[in-house]
Amino acid sequence: MENGNSLMSAKPLPPKPLGLLAELTHRCPLGCPYCSNPLALDDRRSELDTTTWARVFREAAALGVLQAHLSGGEPGARRDLVEITASARAAGLYTNLITSGVGITAKRLAELKNAGLDHVQVSIQDSTASSADHIAGYDGAFARKRELANEVVRLKLPLTVNAVIHRANIDRVGDMVELALALGASRVEIAHVQYYGWALKNRARLLPTREQVDRAVGLVEDLRACHHGRIVIDAVVPDYYARYPKPCVGGWGRRSLNVTPAGKVLPCHAAESIPGLEFWSVREHTLAEIWNDSPAFNAFRGTAWMQEPCASCPRREQDFGGCRCQAFALTGDAAATDPVCHLSPRREHVTALAMVQEDAPYDYRRM
Ligand code: SF4
Ligand code: FES
Question: Can you give the pTM of this predicted structure?
């Protein structure tokens, strides 16, 4: 039985996570040069099996998770995607399929719907086929995405279009919103590339200019007003041009967790880029043990780890000091203030980086 002392000294439990990103596989037919997967990809033989994913979903639901985002790579590369989806649904989770649109047939989409799939998110690379296929490094991808999006709407599944924005397509952001409308999407995410992993490798080839960003931000505001009630447009100012950083993943270890294809559990998709963090695996631990006690999840929880200027900043509970992976990538110190913040002593470095553009062929993501 607990006595008064042990109750007083008990460690408070962290907040409950809301979302789980299930990276079912790193396999993908596309080669997007901004892929958020790590440079060292998990190979097929190391992937978790169907039964383990079902256990992970049950443990996630017991922990408080409400939504499972079935992602990759391309989740359609998993032959057991229908069974995996059914197991997430059986655990009581809202299921969102995040797909490139290549590798899921109309027949399989119908099976996924019957298995309880709730929502589909399709990414698009551009508004024209030639540019979109060039960016994806895959001929015919654009046409197949359109076909899948049409099928999603025909099956009356809610559709979100994820438009990934960078220098080569930012001037067509309006056309991409129009395309999302024409496809019947209820939501479009204007997702500016975030510079980790493959995107960091291709940064100078992907970064838009300040003038492009200013034009696009103004246009998106106009489109929002013009299409109000017809489509929801989600957009934020891209990191390198922002005044404040984003509250990355809603705060480290506060809202969400990622399970990699091989079973490691990460606080965010790029966490493995930070050296010295110890990640636990669902092969050896329950999700609750990992969420509550693993060293990686506790590394940047709360505010005690913060340095100045974050430590005494009134916004520290709003943006949580920004993104740990970006802080590490740009300063070499994962506990530093995200240098995107105008209060960071390293903000000038980001401003200088944002001026470096290079027109060279992409380094495509390949396994
Ligand atoms: Fe956020 Fe830190 Fe900048 Fe304050 S100083 S706005 S907490 S990143
Ligand atoms: Fe890791 Fe932002 S991507 S904290």
Answer: 0.93
